[in-house]
Amino acid sequence: EPEVTQTPSHQVTQMGQEVILRCVPISNHLYFYWYRQILGQKVEFLVSFYNNEISEKSEIFDDQFSVERPDGSNFTLKIRSTKLEDSAMYFCASSVRRDNSPLHFGNGTRLTVT
Amino acid sequence: GDSVTQMEGPVTLSEEAFLTINCTYTATGYPSLFWYVQYPGEGLQLLLKATKADDKGSNKGFEATYRKETTSFHLEKGSVQVSDSAVYFCALRTGIEGAQKLVFGQGTRLTINP
């Protein structure tokens, strides 16, 4: 069964550094998402992306965050200047359509900011 | 805003016990409701869903019924197995156009002992 893949599985970075989290969505999916889960807290929506532009974003997704689909297969989340509070598990997801089609999630990237 | 509240965990049961994980929601409009499961080291997987009141979602022996009158979507299984040990997330998605994002509960960690 096709999967959403995320790399790396764990990334450690120093505060103030830029980090890029990578995702390869399922190939025929058109909608892409990033969610995050701070340890012990809820899974939170960050951003959705369709047709090479952001379709919705949360209050968390401020100017320090950006997303890109640099080619036909990758979908990236960049954090420009990481803060300690950015430490979390980041999940990428994709879906075929925007309606009730299910979201398929990757295994996540654990980001640790020191 | 929209929110989901799940039963506090962790939950520990013996094999073949009956499982209930409570989930209630607050939403504007008419949400679709979901249960996602996260097995150790893996991403979030859709377990079951219900898109309208009185629908019952079911999969792998798990069931949940969309109860509009009590705004609930409790997860049940008649006889759990060790392999059901995972974290379970209740989530909603509103039917408003463009509101594709999922709103998650805090997750309930389930451990089944042999």
Name the average pLDDT of chain B.
91
Shape of chain B: globular
Biggest interface pair, residues each? A-B, 26 and 24 residues
Topology of chain A as a string of helices (H) and strands (E): EEEEEEEEEEE
Our count of helices of chain A gives: 0
The end-to-end distance of chain A, rounded to whole angstroms, is 37 Å
Query: What global shape of chain A is seen?
Result: globular
Class per helix and strand makeup of chain B: mainly beta
Question: Got a strand count of chain B?
Answer: 12
- How many strands, which pairing sense, and closed or not: the largest β-sheet of chain B? 6 strands, mixed
Flag low-confidence runs of chain A: none
* Total of helices of chain B: 0
**Beta-strand residue percentage of chain B:** over 45%
Strand content of chain A: over 45%
What share of the residues of chain A lie within helices?
A: under 10%
Q: State the secondary-structure class of chain A.
A: mainly beta
Uncertain ranges of chain B? none
Explain how this protein is built.
The complex is a heterodimer of chains A (114) and B (114). With 114 residues, chain A is mainly beta. Chain A has no helices and eleven strands. In chain A, strands 2, 4, 5, 6, 9, 10 and 11 form a seven-stranded mixed β-sheet that branches. In chain A, a hairpin with an 8-residue loop joins β9 and β10. Chain A is globular, with a radius of gyration of 13 Å. The model of chain A has no long low-confidence stretch (mean pLDDT 92). Chain B is an all-beta fold. In chain B, β5 and β6 form a beta hairpin. The mean pLDDT of chain B is 91.
Question: Secondary structure elements and their pairing?
Answer:
The complex is a heterodimer of chains A (114) and B (114).
Chain A: E1 5-7, E2 10-13, E3 19-24, E4 31-37, E5 43-50, E6 53-57, E7 65-68, E8 75-79, E9 88-95, E10 104-105, E11 109-113
Parallel strand pairs in A: 2-11
Antiparallel strand pairs in A: 1-3, 3-8, 4-5, 4-9, 5-6, 7-8, 9-10, 9-11
Chain B: E1 3-6, E2 11-14, E3 19-21, E4 23-26, E5 32-38, E6 44-50, E7 56-59, E8 62-65, E9 75-77, E10 86-93, E11 103-104, E12 108-113
Parallel strand pairs in B: 2-12
Antiparallel strand pairs in B: 1-4, 3-9, 5-6, 5-10, 7-8, 8-9, 10-11, 10-12
